Automatic annotation (TrEMBL):
Occurrences of domain Mur ligase C-terminal (ranges): 316-445
Keyword Nucleus: no
Residues reported in the UniProt entry to bind ATP: 116-122
Record keyword Iron present: no
Protein name (Swiss-Prot/TrEMBL): UDP-N-acetylmuramate--L-alanine ligase
Amino acid sequence: MIIDIENFKRVHFIGIGGISMSGLAHIMLNSGHIVTGSDIKDSHIIKKLRNEGAIINIPHSASNVDGADLVVYTAAVKEDNPEMIRARELNIPTIDRATLLGEIMKKYTYGVGVAGSHGKTTTTSLISVLLEEMNYDPTVLVGGEVDIIGGNVRVGNSEYFITEACEYTDSFLKFYPYIAVILNVDSDHLDYFKNIDNIKQSFTQFANLVPNDGFVVACGDDPNTMSVLKNVNRNIITFGLDSNCTWNAKNIKFDEKGFPSFDVYHNGTFVERFELSIVGKHNILNALATLSVCHLLGVDIKKTPDIIKKFKGTHRRFEFKGTIDGAVIIDDYAHHPTEIKATLSSALNYPHNRIICVFQPHTYTRTYSLLNDFAASFDDADITIITDIYAAREKDTGIVRAEDLANLIKDRGNEVYYIKEFSDIVDYLKGTIKNGDLVITIGAGDVYEIGNMLLNFNKKAAIGA
């Protein structure tokens, strides 16, 4: 459906509390639209939108859409949603989130879509911070909260637009990128895609959305990404640790906290040495992707090392939460085996005695499809705790259980426990953790609450003492 968003005065968002939907609502408010919305529960994101002038109702109700000129919905909203039914009855145009994002992106000369199975949020955030600090005044929509830009969205007044480009349900095929970034291509979202070849086909289509004078920035170290590029006839810039890449890193070192430093080369010529304040080798690749994009937009890369170092990451990406009895509590959004391996590999470089990992699987289809890969991804943990699967958009059909994953981890000779209730996990941790331990909660659901519960208990205990 082709639309001109300027023709719609009041825009209603079903599921407005979502990280991307809330960002789009903010952009629409800023451009003068009346914004209404609904969600199943309140949140700090919704409160922020209300403060900006949005009218938001909890929960969903058919009457919420009355008077709307356009209705925007997320992939999680089904046709039997009462607001969707009401919109159809009233013949109100309805579009999905990705279509609206694409229409917004179309209005900018330099749209950057950051795609990839992993690393989208960090890379989008890093590009955004660098461009903002270099006075490019970009408009930004990111799938996480970044302190430096004040949340998950930033509205600028320039021709630059930076956004994550998610492949799920082929959403990113509705975008209009001048620069398409492909960080990596991996097996994921197998409730939608048939297999890895189907996924690579979608990434190929995404790359070919770039106009002839635009660019595809892609990881030269990733075999699946390089396979995608074989069918892309555009200007291609590569990044990676391989010296054959357009942008590459050499002389990598890690400090005592696991933060990497490295020399950056462009077309074989030394540029500068960079230091990161985020952990992991995977973030070196994210930084190289950032430098590749910003160089194409005219940024003097030699002026950026201090900006890169200042970036502390986004919430829920190896985020330091606090300490309890000398143990460090970290939270990470990883929900795919590749991401879990990267997170635990980063943890190995972080000061620790033991790594205790609490994992909440995310969706039944992902857990079932990648079950053996998940089991192998916890080898670097000393103790692993598995809790119940976070259903997200799915229903439990009995196809897989969290206990199945715990049993496979045990079969690999690793110490693992299945614990259903968060409160019981907190009790276990209170009796187990010791000075110097590193406790990491991992998952895309609400597993972060365990760290909060643990730290809050510690505060109450201290006050009581």
